[in-house]
Structure formats: C-alpha cells, structure tokens
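Narrative of activities, Objective 1.

The group set out to show that a structural description can be obtained from nothing but a protein's sequence at a throughput compatible with the screening campaign. Below is one input-output pair from the validation batch, recorded exactly as produced.
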Amino acid sequence: YNPSRPPRDNNSSEDDFLAQVRQALIYGALGATLIALLLGILLARTLTRPLRELTAATQALSQGELGQQVTVRSRDELGRLAGSFNRMSADLAQASLLRRQMTADIAHDLRTPLSVILGYTEALREGKLEADQEIFDTMHIEAQHLQHLIDDLRTLSLADAGELSLECQEITAYSLIERAIASYTAQAEVQKVRLELHVADRLPTLRVDIERMAQVFGNLLSNALRYTKAGGTISLRAASQAEQLVFQI
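Output recorded for this entry:
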C-alpha cells in the first residue's frame, strides 16, 4: 500500500470504457455509412449507365442518325431493353437503305423509257428515221412502260418490302429480246452501235412479268450503250442450259 498514490476510481474506468465503446460505435457507423454510400453510388452508376446510353442513342436516332447500337451489359430487363433497341435501330436503318435504293432504281427505270422515246423523237425530227407504224408501236409500248412505272410509285410501301406485285404472262424468249432490241434500235443507230440477236431454236415459252423483264433488259442495254464506243456491237443471246433459260447481253 502506497499512501502517496490516490485510490483508483472505478466509476472513472467505466466512463472511459463506455467512451471508447461509443467512439468505436460512432466510427463503425460512419465507416458503414461511407461504405454504403460508395456502394450506392457504384450501384446507381451501374444501373443508370445503360439508361444514359439508351437516352443518347435515342436522341441520335430522333435526329436521323440511324443504325445506333448500345452495349448489352446484362440479361435483365435493361439488357432486354437494350437488345430490343438495337434490333429496332438496325431495322430502321435497313428500311431506310431499301427506300433509298428503291427510289434510285425507280428513277433509273423512269429514265430508260424516256431515253427510248427521246431517241426516236430526236431521230424523227432530224430526219434520220422515217416515221412508220413500227416506230409508233415501239414508242407506244415504252409510253405504257413509263405509265406502269409511275403506277408503281403508288405502291412504294410494297416496294420497300420487296413485294411488288407481278403480272405474269406467257411470252417467247425471242419476243422478249426482240422487244428489247426494238426499244433501243434508234438510240443504237444514233450512236453507231450494232445490235445483234441470237436465239437458240426450240426454247420453252416463258411465264414472266413482261414489264419487269423489260426493265431488266432495258437497264442492261442502256448501260451497254453507255459504255460501247461507236462501231461496237452489242449481242443479245438466249439459250437453254442445264434446265434453265439463260439470257446474255
């Protein structure tokens, strides 16, 4: 026993212990709150990031920037939403491409009969051809072809889907090619290009949309005349090959 040392205060020791416990609890609560806050921020950013990407892609899509794609980061509702958006965006881009291509094709097809009619009228005006019934018949056929193309513009929704209606009729291969040559004879003569017709014997009768086939042959002949120099020859052939009827220009 040391009389100079003051006696130990039990109440003071308990207060110190309780203070340390309270301090530990406070620090633990602050630490847990901070961790929860950080986890909440991380979780919120994880959840809102796909929404921000979808919002940005949707805004770009509304401004005409088709084909927008977002990253599918999960398999939950947000992931399915992102996948649906990607498919919708791709379908819109494809539909727009088909529409532009169809518009370009129609414009090209409209020029073909107009070129034939203008070629005949120019040759008749300059006296290079004498007017006869065959020329008038050819011009009438091309005018009907032009009218048919104009009617197709009314069914642009079907054209976008690649489902233009076909009016199939029976025709011989010779008649099909002969019509194509007759439509471009005047233009070929003006350009000093010779057109030749070679059709094999005993070819089967075709059942096709005559106007659509006229578009096909017209486009090919128009391109051939565009790139054939004066004095050149363009040959149109039809022959049977491996149970198929093959046309060559």
